[in-house]
Automatic annotation (TrEMBL), chain A:
It comes from Rubroshorea leprosula. The lineage of its organism: Eukaryota, Viridiplantae, Streptophyta, Embryophyta, Tracheophyta. Transmembrane segments: none annotated. This is U-box domain-containing protein. Keywords: Transferase, Ubl conjugation pathway. Pathway: Protein modification; protein ubiquitination.
Automatic annotation (TrEMBL), chain B:
This is Guanine nucleotide-binding protein alpha subunit. GTP binds at residues 49-54, 163-164, 188-194, 219-223, 288-291, 355. It comes from Rubroshorea leprosula. It comes from the Eukaryota. Keywords: Cell membrane, GTP-binding, Hydrolase, Lipoprotein, Magnesium, Membrane, Metal-binding, Myristate, Nucleotide-binding, Palmitate, Transducer.
Length: 447, 385
């Protein structure tokens, strides 16, 4: 059995498989007999690595095509060869035969001989190849873990520039390796980094720390630890002052902290935060900033007390003016915010007072998604109920009536249709039938 | 012909010399203007006794050579004056209370203290003060320790008792030494009303020694009658450092005993924010005297001040202090954003300070410096520089 007997013959030439050079000698030795330089986890030294497990863990790795079964397109664990010379995974080709076929699946040749020969050479190659890659990745991951632990230890001791450097390095490592994240979490990294945030934290330190924290999974005790007023103030300040990446990270982190907790949103949504988010959302140069800002705005504006703050910093006209330039994902978020705000009396007033509300919102009806149309209708209804005549003429000029009729006739859900009918009625209240019809600017067919 | 020529040549020489001088002057003006552009101007504003001058002194101590012996000695007369002023305010206040209060037995001095008090009050009322001798210091200390005076001190917020009263009274022995030289702390606590404008130029030297930022800090008088002097300074400042003493919420003004100090601060802040010359200026709000605030807020509720009348305490001890601080901070924030619509895009940051603590001031200033540098970088990136 080739698999159990390591070859003692020296091989001069390296095997080339699909452009990858395989040093089979070393691969076999490493794969079966033990660790690379014995430097890592003793566990590997005597255990036989399970091929199935390795294949599973190395799912994302590009496997050489000769190792792949033509039937399942998966790496073969027990390759067998037919009389045509084609190799398949044993279970797959046997299944093929059991279905009544007596052909070779790839060459379509009729088989006079349905015997299958185990391809031990290929099996060994596959095993070695996977082992080599598996062990290398394990080593890399251990290196990463070691490095992370080192950096965390350093962070406990240093200050000033050294601290900033350590944080920068940790951030790079965490971004490059997913195993690093777990290591940070398991070694008290979150508490350590959180402790660096306070009223006297410099922007340089804070922005790196937030860059790391916003990418980690935070449990609820970490979250409540980060919810201290001084730390939140720091995040809000950085959101106002930092680079676009820092702004986005702060936004993301605050969103994580506030998720699902009603009281947190109120604590966090200071006027400074809202102003900072509005500035972020208005920055047309950075689309991901707009998205991050709107997401957080949506989260905090689901709370009543925040809505009046939002209105008081002039958020409504700023957001309304932005609507035409937003992409679909952002539009839905923005409409959500405006709709939430429209439930508050000061919000309704602000929406009505802004001259762009009606035209901009009307344009969005039936344009993006059902959800958006629903939100837009709610906003319009709220505004109309406040000042029917004013809004009616504005809306008609913007072509509202045609759109409403479209909604009513379309396949939208019932609620939407009812809302549209309601709105249409509100519009028509001030006009006689004929004037109304003419104002509708309908085409002949719809008329 | 000859005459003409020679006359021309003579006047040519004179002209040339004048031109050279004029050029030299112009060149120097141009150099200085360019240099000026790189100097960031910081303006310290705030109501009276909000801690502006203390911040000023701290910056001098931190980033300049500090005070030399001559400067330190120049503060002796100020400190002695503060001592006399303090004890006079207390004694006069005591007399006032004993006349008005129903339970006036609290405000009766024992034995000779009444005479001592009268004598000190007379000294304190003069224009010039005598040097503080050991005997006088002893008498002041005796009077200070009298229970009636301590009762009066407990109601110090109703009088114009300076915040540093306790510090002065506790160090009388040292102050009256024949060879007394004031310490740095003594200088920081010393109180003299700033009249006019004082300025210093400095460069914050940090780990990043090549920072190269040059700041010029202006300190102006805080009381109302000095404010007209500020106007012409407002052009082109990089940042306003507005000092607000948050422990003042239960005290009244020196220049108008009917007006609550916190309300005065609120109005001043509002006024400053609305000045058109500050449209692009960054605002650093120093919520100062946190150390006094910490202790006071647990004893005197915030709602004695009209601006804070909707305050609800939630717990006790440190948590309550934090909660109260956040409330005050939020009030200032609301005030700022009221005058900030539409959003002018300027920087607004709030710092918790205790101007007397040098380490804290250093840390705070480091953050201010960082913010201003970030602002320049952001402006540069946005193509505004």
């Amino acid at each position: 059995m080739l698999v159990d007997q390591p070859s003692t013959r020296r091989r001069e030439a390296d095997l080339k498989v699909d452009g990858q050079v395989l040093d089979v000698e070393t691969a076999v030795k490493d794969g079966i007999l033990g660790g690379v330089g014995g430097g890592f986890g003793g566990g590997f030294a005597s255990e036989k690595l399970d091929l199935k497990q390795m294949i599973e863990e190395l799912e994302s790795v590009e496997v050489p095509t000769v190792f792949i079964c033509p039937i399942s397109l998966e790496p073969m664990q027990d390759p067998v060869t037919l009389s045509t010379g084609q190799t398949y995974e044993r279970s797959n080709i046997l299944k093929w035969f059991s279905l009544g076929h007596c052909t070779c699946p790839t060459t379509m040749q009729e088989l006079w001989d349905d015997s299958v020969t185990p391809n031990k050479t290929l099996q060994q190659l596959i095993y070695s190849w996977f082992s080599q890659i598996y062990l290398a990745s394990k080593k890399r991951s251990e290196d990463v873990q070691g490095r992370v632990k080192e950096i965390l230890e350093t962070l406990k001791k240093v200050k000033g520039q050294a601290r900033i450097q350590a944080l920068k390095e940790l951030r790079q490592v965490v971004n490059a390796h997913s195993t690093a994240k777990k290591t940070v979490v398991n070694n008290g990294g979150i508490a350590l980094i959180s402790s660096l945030l306070g009223p006297f934290t410099t922007h340089a330190v804070g922005s790196e720390a937030i860059g790391i924290l916003s990418n980690l999974d935070l449990d609820s005790s970490s979250k409540s630890h980060l919810m201290q007023p001084a730390k939140i103030s720091l995040m809000v300040d950085m959101l106002n002052e930092g680079s676009i990446d820092t702004k986005i990270n702060c936004s993301k982190l605050i969103e994580i902290l506030v998720e699902g907790d009603d009281f947190s949103a109120e604590k966090v949504a200071s006027l400074s935060l809202l102003v900072g988010l509005l500035r972020l959302v208005k920055d047309k140069r950075h689309l991901n900033g707009i998205l991050a800002g709107l997401r957080l705005l949506k989260t905090v504006c689901s709370h009543e007390s925040v809505r009046s703050s939002f209105v008081s910093v002039g958020g409504v006209p700023q957001l309304v003016v932005l609507l035409p330039s937003l992409n679909n994902e952002c539009l839905e978020l923005a409409l959500y915010v405006l709709e939430a705000v429209s439930t508050a009396p000061e919000g309704k007033l602000a929406l009505k007072d802004c001259p762009n509300t009606v035209p901009n919102v009307v344009k969005l009806l039936m344009k993006v998604s059902e959800n958006c149309t629903q939100l837009a209708l709610s906003i319009l209804l709220a505004v109309f109920n406040l000042a029917p005549e004013e809004c009616a003429s504005l809306a008609m000029d913007a072509g509202l009536a045609a759109k409403l009729l479209l909604v009513i006739q379309s396949g939208c859900n019932l609620v939407l249709k009812q809302r549209s009918a309601e709105l249409l009625k509100l519009c028509s209240l001030n006009y006689t039938a004929t004037i109304f019809m003419s104002k509708c600017k309908l085409t002949r067919t719809i008329q | 012909m000859g005459l003409l020529c020679s006359r021309n040549r003579h006047s040519n020489e004179a002209d040339a010399k004048e031109n050279a001088q004029a050029e030299e002057i112009e060149r120097r003006i141009e150099q200085e203007t360019r240099a000026e552009k790189h100097i960031q101007k910081l303006l310290l504003l705030g109501a009276g006794e909000s801690g502006k001058s203390t911040i000023f002194k701290q910056i001098k101590l931190l980033f300049q050579t500090g005070f030399d012996e001559a400067e330190l000695k120049s503060y002796i007369s100020v400190i002695h004056a503060n001592v006399y002023q303090t004890i006079k305010v207390l004694f006069d206040g005591l007399k006032e209370f004993s006349q008005n209060e129903t339970d006036s037995s609290k405000y009766v001095l024992s034995g000779e203290n009444k005479e001592i008090g009268e004598k000190l009050s007379e000294i304190g009322g003069k224009l010039e003060y005598p040097r503080l001798t050991k005997e006088l210091a002893q008498e002041i200390e005796t009077l200070w320790k009298d229970p009636a005076i301590q009762e009066t001190y407990a109601r110090g917020n109703e009088l114009q008792v300076p915040d540093s009263a306790h510090y002065f009274m506790e160090n009388l022995q040292r102050f009256s030494d024949a060879n007394y030289i004031p310490t740095k702390d003594d200088v920081l606590f010393a109180r003299v009303r700033t009249t006019g404008v004082v300025e210093i130029q400095f460069s914050p030297v940090g780990e990043n020694k090549k920072s190269g930022e040059v700041y010029r800090l202006f300190d102006v008088g805080g009381q109302r009658n000095e404010r007209r002097k500020w106007i012409h300074l407002f052009e082109g400042v990089t940042a306003v450092i507005f000092c607000a003493a948050i422990s003042d919420y239960d005290q009244t003004l020196f220049e108008d005993e009917q007006k609550n100090r916190m309300m005065e601060t609120k109005e001043l802040f509002d006024w400053v924010l609305k000045q058109p010359c500050f449209e692009k200026t960054s605002f650093m709000l120093f919520l100062n005297k946190f150390d006094i605030f910490e202790k006071k807020v647990l004893k005197v509720p915030l709602n004695v001040c009209e601006w804070f009348k909707d305050y609800q305490p939630v717990s006790t001890g440190k948590q309550e202090v934090e909660h109260a601080y956040e409330f005050v901070k939020k009030k200032f924030e609301e005030l700022y954003f009221e005058s900030n619509t539409p959003d002018r895009g300027r920087i607004f940051k709030i710092y918790r300070t205790t101007a007397l603590d040098q380490k804290l001031v250093k840390k705070t200033f480091k953050l201010v410096d960082e913010t201003l540098r970030l602002r320049r970088r952001n402006q540069y990136e946005a193509g505004l520089l």
